[in-house]
Amino acid sequence: MSTAIMVDLADLSRVSARERVVFESEDLRATLDDDGVLLAEMRHPHGCCFTPSLLDSGLRLHERLRREVTAGNLRVHYLVWHSAREDIWSLGGDLARFLAWVEAGDRRALESYAHTCIRLVEETWRGLDLPLRTVALVRGRAYGGGFEAALACDVLLAEAGARFGLPETLFGLFPGMGAWSLLARRAPRALLRRLVEEAETVTAEELHAHGLVHRLLPAGGALAGLRAFVAERAPHRRRDLALDRVRRRVEALDPGELEDIVAIWVERALTLEEPMRRRMRHFARRQRSARCR
Questions:
Q1: Residue 63: CATH number of its domain
Q2: Going along the chain, which residue ranges are E strands?
Q3: Helices (H), 222-273
Q4: Across the chain, what does the average pLDDT equal?
Q5: pTM (2 decimals)?
Q6: How many domains does the structure of the chain reveal?
């Protein structure tokens, strides 16, 4: 039986922690509260996907945290990735740009984008080399690169009914920015095949049963569930950080492995057949229509 953190949503009104903005761009707004929880809200103004500008904002936020936390100017215990939309966490890579680069034969642009993605994934997986934990707080759908980004976090919290998938094989590609590497280290082989090769969509409940979702939160209770999780783990923070270090050592995610997979991904993208490109256009339209207004 799955476990869920049952929290009265009214508890949110009693949270006394003050928040201050520590980073803000068109794509990303990060606020830090008195409990050391930094909530990085993806705003998705141009579509619910990882646009180049969102990736850049993510890397700039990482750089600011490394600088300010190391200097003792910020106290951050959790970096929590969150979406401004309740029904979509992220629909993955920027397919409209992929198509434009593929059709132009622009290898350099594809490589640059993909290497930025795996840099963000690897930095997240390493916890920015800081004494903090990274958290994906997922409501709604996390597909493609969105699922990859969530898997890179130390903790994946998801509302009941959230859905996860890797649809890339439906348009002739494969998830090339970390999903295969992370799932191969954590998931049963049969589940990896269903997700990667067969492009199945699965629920948060099923991923929770496999240990990939760490906490299942009540529908509509993501933020309250996050607060409950932080309060519960507060006495164990140092132990949790040590266990994260052990997990990273055992998983041994190799940057060279990520780069090799990206090279295969770029080669395949540049040879996509026209029927596959048409399918990608369909997915790209759905991404761009699902933006925050």
A1: 3.90.226.10
A2: 19-24, 28-33, 37-42, 78-83, 88-90, 133-138, 141-143, 155-159, 163-165, 201-203, 215-217
A3: 222-233, 237-251, 255-269
A4: 92
A5: 0.91
A6: 1
